[in-house]
Amino acid sequence: MEFSAMVARENDGGIVLARETVGEDFLGAGEVTIKVHYSSANYKDLLAVTPRGGVVRKYPIVPGIDLTGEVIASGTDDFSPGDQVIVHGYDLGVARNGGFAEYSRVPAEWVVRLDGLDTRDAATIGTAGFTAAMSVQALLDRGLTPDDGSVLVTGATGGVGTVAIDILSGLGFEVIASTGKTDANDLLAELGANEVIGRLPLDSDAKPRPLNKANWAAAVDSVGGASLAYVLSAIGYGGAVAVSGLTGGTEVPATVLPFILRGVSLLGIDSVFLPIEKRRALWAALGKELRPRHLSTIESFAPITEVDSVLQSIKSGSHSGRTVIGVAGEF
Ligand SMILES: NC(=O)c1ccc[n+]([C@@H]2O[C@H](COP(=O)([O-])OP(=O)(O)OC[C@H]3O[C@@H](n4cnc5c(N)ncnc54)[C@H](OP(=O)(O)O)[C@@H]3O)[C@@H](O)[C@H]2O)c1
């Protein structure tokens, strides 16, 4: 069996991503073989092709932390040829070959059968959108309701941000979107944001305060860094922040005061090692009650041959929403 893949190889201290014809050895071990329809572009895929990006354990590798497609062979009764599936997380695209290839073989316990979403919708949601859904679910599980007040979403035009806004507004929450992009108001309003503000803190030169006026009941934060410290200082009594990302940095210069004086909670969100039963249940919800209503607004499309330039647009900060990478028929 021979097929096409985008392979990332180390070269002179850099990493080169290029199309190659590869063989069965690129499929690896597992019970389920999938013809890949779509992958997507995630921040982590950019790190996979960035020297010292810190996510890939060993090169060469086929990046692509998301893949959706059709089962073509299965060594387990749990899946049958023709099943429409998504695989993301675990080692995919970081420690074993991922979605930037025509075929993939994975362990059955990584595979989610799609219900209520086609393979393109699921790729639009992808890891980033799934992380948004996990963040919203964590706030709901903590008892948050629209009556509690508004919910802040940082990194609003990003993959996590756009899907979080869409899901939250669909559930009836008042949503405040924080973005660094000055031309994103129309997009964010279309997704359901009630108000758009700049990146936080709004005055980056002001001396940080441990507590600020309580502005929001809760937040979905994929930015981290000084932004997260500010967000924590302005969450209302008993509120919570679901934290998934680090685009604004890993150091969080916060104090304990929001936690001990306002009972604020920090909810850690990790999509990578979420156990498969919880993963399948949340994908089922994404096809029903948590289904984002504006996937066509959030989605852009690029063929696999253009994936490198899409990843570079994430690096330059010009990317917004979710870019689906067409794989089948696009090499
Ligand atoms: N925990 C998990 O399982 C998990 C899963 C998926 C993603 N993540 C993480 O979540 C983060 C977002 O992922 P994504 O896929 O949504 O990425 P993305 O599509 O690239 O979006 C990130 C957004 O962050 C904002 N941003 C970028 N640079 C920034 C900076 N220097 N300071 C503040 N904001 C900045 C931008 O939004 P604006 O221009 O609108 O401000 C950007 O659109 C990443 O750190 C990613 O690694 C974690």
Report on the structure:
By secondary structure, the chain is α/β, with parallel strands linked by helices. It has helices at about 45-50, 120-140, 160-170, 185-190, 225-235, 255-260, 275-285, 295-300, 305-315, and strands at about 1-10, 15-25, 30-40, 65-75, 85-90, 105, 110-115, 150-155, 175-180, 195, 215-220, 235-245, 265-270, 300-305, 320-325. Strands 3, 4, 5, 6, 7, 14 and 15 form a 7-stranded mixed beta sheet that branches. Strands 10-9-8-11-12-13 form a 6-stranded parallel beta sheet, sandwiched between helices. A two-stranded antiparallel sheet has the order 1-2. Strand 9 (about 175-180), helix 4 and strand 10 form a beta-alpha-beta unit. Helix 2 crosses helix 3 (about 160-170). The model has no long low-confidence stretch (mean pLDDT about 95). It binds NADP nicotinamide-adenine-dinucleotide phosphate (NAP).
What ligands does this structure carry? NADP nicotinamide-adenine-dinucleotide phosphate
Q: Helix coverage percent of residues?
A: 25-40%
What is the total tally of β strands?
Answer: 15
What amount of the residues lies in strands? Answer: 25-35%
State the separation between the terminal residues, measured CA to CA.
16 Å
SSE order, one letter for each helix or strand = EEEHEEEEHEHEHEEHEHEHHEHE
Mean pLDDT: 97
Low-confidence stretches: none
Coarse shape: globular
C-alpha Rg (nearest Å)? 20 Å
Largest sheet: 7 strands, mixed
Quickly give the structural class.
alpha/beta
